[in-house]
Design a protein that fits this description.
The chain has one domain: Spore Coat Polysaccharide Biosynthesis Protein SpsA, Chain A (Alpha-Beta Complex). The chain contains six helices and twelve strands. Strands 1, 4, 5, 6, 7, 8, 9 and 10 form an eight-stranded mixed beta sheet that branches. It has a two-stranded antiparallel sheet with strand order 2-3. A two-stranded antiparallel sheet has the order 11-12. Transfers a GMP moiety from GTP to Mo-molybdopterin (Mo-MPT) cofactor (Moco or molybdenum cofactor) to form Mo-molybdopterin guanine dinucleotide (Mo-MGD) cofactor. Belongs to the MobA family. Its cofactor is Mg(2+).
Amino acid sequence: MNFIDLSNQSTNVTGVILAGGASSRMGSNKALLPYRGGRFIEAIHRQLARHFAEIIVVTNTPQQYSFLPCRTVCDLFPGMGALAGIHAGLFHSTTPAIFAVACDMPYLDDELIRYLTSRYNPAGVVIPESDGGLEPLHAVYGRGCLGGMEKSLAAGKKRVVSFFDGVPVEVVPAGLVACFDGGFNSFRNINTPADYFSLRGEQTVVHSSDNSSAISKRRE
């Protein structure tokens, strides 16, 4: 049985898992693929539960996630992609901010999550940068973003960054992110069967100390 140290959970930020993608390249629902003795989304949920007292899954098929011990909510702007999912999670949360992450990101880093959420701004965005640019599906959004998100969505704008001009945005530069996650693995996701089988072929070693975990990966 996995025990969660409740003393480490934030009550100011809600963990939001975005599970609304089409999974078209995978051919089946990525969130429900077998992983670490359960389903993919269960591993993401377990990790977020170390950080957040409230967790929400955003999905338009809530019946598929009834096994999770958290709330499921649907998009208020159906068909509008990740921005609609982030908006729904923020709208339904009971905290000043959310940490939003995709359901298919297996290499989340606890220390990076802790750093980002410690800097939450109820009025704006805290977003990390990798060597590939901004990472909006691994970012913190304050309740003050709701108006800008809704304006963008109502105008048919799907890009997550489309409302950034209207709110305070703190970019955590790639150099600082690399201090936590040198390979930017936190932002890797699983899109294709090849990605998934590569992931299943990796050996993971989990080291626990001071109530935190770090995952070191080595390929066969």
